[in-house]
Amino acid sequence: MNLNSIPAFQDNYIWVLNDEQGKCLIVDPGEAAPVLKAIEEQQWQPVAILLTHHHNDHVGGVKTLLEHYPEVVVYGPQETAGKGTTKVVKEGDKAVILGHEFTVIATPGHTSGHISYFSFPYLFCGDTMFSAGCGRLFEGTPAQMYQSFQKLNALPEDTLICCAHEYTLSNLTFSLSVLPEDVHLTHYYREVKELRAKNQKSLPSILKKERQINLFLRVNDIDLINKINVETTLQHPEERFAWLRAKKDSF
């Protein structure tokens, strides 16, 4: 399997997996034009589309893609039922695509019905986990997003985090405002800054790396707890997660 990323809008990535025969699946096609261009250039044959949630920058291209490829199966959560989904899936469901089994993981928080898809080593997590960050809570609660992060953190350490936005540098900037002396954050910030200066992408990330540089995975980290204790004492990890998300919202 080959993993490809197609830039879209200002900072989206539309992920495409293709096999040696050129058959492919497409993840969260927010717009159709760049996908159709890549399909033509690479001579891909789309067989499936995976949708993680209902926001337009993830589903906006589905209708046009189906006009070109009406046989494509579109998987998505219930909240995408009116967005072109032909097969609604939920937590624990499995789909075999291109000979690989994808497991559906419910990851609410960004939206109430957000899901992720996992087929080792690929995790397509939409706007749940970003590199060094997490999605904004539009419909869900901090507790829901915390639990979603716990599910994703239970995956193998070499899982590829194929999230939907190039937010890594801004997320690291925020993280360094919280823990400015953190060695992992400092080193990775420099690394990503160099990548972005060359217009190279920082994704996919690796879960092992995220456990070092993603503060939303480090809510039990003593340095972060000490930082929070300067302002308030929070006993539970869900509360510290909520504190961190609130800080990010106002950053």
Describe this structure in words.
By secondary structure, the chain is α/β, with parallel strands linked by helices. It has a domain at 2-163: Ribonuclease Z/Hydroxyacylglutathione hydrolase-like (Metallo-beta-lactamase, Chain A, 4-Layer Sandwich). It contains 9 helices and 14 strands. The chain has helices at residues 33-42, 56-59, 62-68, 142-153, 168-178, 183-197, 207-213, 222-229, 237-249; strands at 2-8, 12-18, 23-27, 45-50, 73-76, 87-88, 94-97, 100-106, 115-119, 122-126, 129-130, 133-134, 160-163, 205-206. The longest helix is centred in the last third of the chain and has 15 residues, at 183-197. The mean pLDDT is 97.
List keywords for this structure.
six-stranded mixed beta sheet; single chain; 251 residues; 25% strand; alpha/beta; 14 strands; Metallo-beta-lactamase, Chain A; globular
Cα(first) to Cα(last) distance is 39 Å
Which stretches are low in confidence, meaning pLDDT under 50 for 5 or more residues running?
none
- Main β-sheet description: 6 strands, mixed
CATH H level, superfamily name of the domain at 2-163: Ribonuclease Z/Hydroxyacylglutathione hydrolase-like
- Helix percent reads 25-40%
Number of strands: 14
What is the number of helical segments per DSSP (H or I, 4+ residues)?
9
Quote the beta fraction: 15-25%
CATH class of the domain at 2-163: Alpha Beta
Order of helices and strands: EEEHEHHEEEEEEEEHEHHEHHH
CATH architecture classification of the domain at 2-163: 4-Layer Sandwich
Arrangement of strands in the largest sheet: 1-2-3-4-5-6
Outline type:
globular
Average of pLDDT:
97
